[in-house]
Amino acid sequence: MTVPIIPGFHPDPSICRVGGTYYLANSSFEYVPGVPIHRSTDLVNWELIGHALPRLGGLRPSRGVFAPTLRHHDGLFHVVTTNVSDDRGHLIVTAEDPSGPWSDPVHVPGTGGIDPDLCWDDDGVCHLTWATFSPTSPPIVSAPIDPLSGVLLDDPRPLWTGSGLAYPEGPHLYRIDGWWYLLLAEGGTERGHAVTVARARTLDGPFEPAPGNPVLTHRSTTHPVQNTGHADLVSCADGSWAMVYLGVRPRGVTPSFHVNGRETFLAGVDWVDGWPVVDESRFAVPPRDRSFVEVFPDSSLDPRWVSPGAPPSSFCRWDSPGSLVLGPGMLVTRALDELWTASVRLDVSSGVGRFLVRLDDRHWYGLTASSDSVTCTLAVGPSVSDVAVVPSGSDVSLRIRALAGGDGPDLLELSLGSSRVLGVFDGRYLSTEVAGGFTGRMIGVEVLSGSVVLREFRYRSVHLVE
To answer: DSSP character for 433?
Structure first.
């Protein structure tokens, strides 16, 4: 599979099914609201319906909310995840409707680590499983838990150390046909990423590794999707099985560069001699036009809009239909395509605003508009350079395009309006391979001072030819 089912910085997918409907959660790191939730009836077409963690703050780049697990049990949806920006342990939220509202978090103290998972046994006891990363503890441990209070009911027990690859993490535990199956991510979330599995009759083990491990990896291949791993299994409504997993689409000269972050992909699964066998060709996922136009007609934001470190509601308000007033802060949405065009119309008569494409707070390209000028700026690590300044008015239209070309993944063109190009720049400096971290490109508006009115935002998918 080369087309993601959920494109653009949607890593660490976790999936569950209720009746004929599937629900999927992704990690969100510093962006708030956190943990986006999507819904589908066919596993291929997905709709963003909300977020499980709407109330977060103080999150730093590539910190915050790591990998969640989404499960449904006894009429409740459960999300368990880790906010690595605090030290209160894993957190659990619940909801009757996955579009919200979600409960306040219940924390699980004394469970240092990441990537928690919830699984219920045949007696209805819930088990919390996680990756410890402690030098004095086995890498993957599990303990029975009361998921509504966060109280562990017994001491953690070790499960499996993995197949021998680096960084065993991302555990998902399943009770299937009298076996306990443990699915892991191994090899790190970069080019060596892989999915492995083991099974045991009881949680006391021993866990037997699958003879075909890893059951999914693209390492050391020329496949256009790389870094494949961190998977989750789901039993489908027709009795078949499927797997969601993360991957990236690197482009350009070696070592190749991925810019939209880790995205969510889909594969089929067959059970052969009691082991999952992955079929990457089972599902056909056609490219989709993900273009949209926002004119902000009322006092509610589409769930596509997020902000680094604080909820958008902390700095957004409506003066009138079509006039979203932004105070100091940053309102952004994910880049969903390899090539795209985005534009905004701003009123900067009462402030200074920047239209930008951002990987993190040290790697971004932007157009900063005041009441009399627009400045084109590149930030690459410690180097921040103004490359062009042109006169303009207080009602300004700005455009950024991701274009094919160059030795990197793309070229980024920054323009005043649709015709005055202020520069075309190498896109590799806004890639994870250069900047590091766990996120992907975001596009949006940052207010530097005063207030700015955002009147229109346009995003257009571009498929190879403009």
So the answer is: H
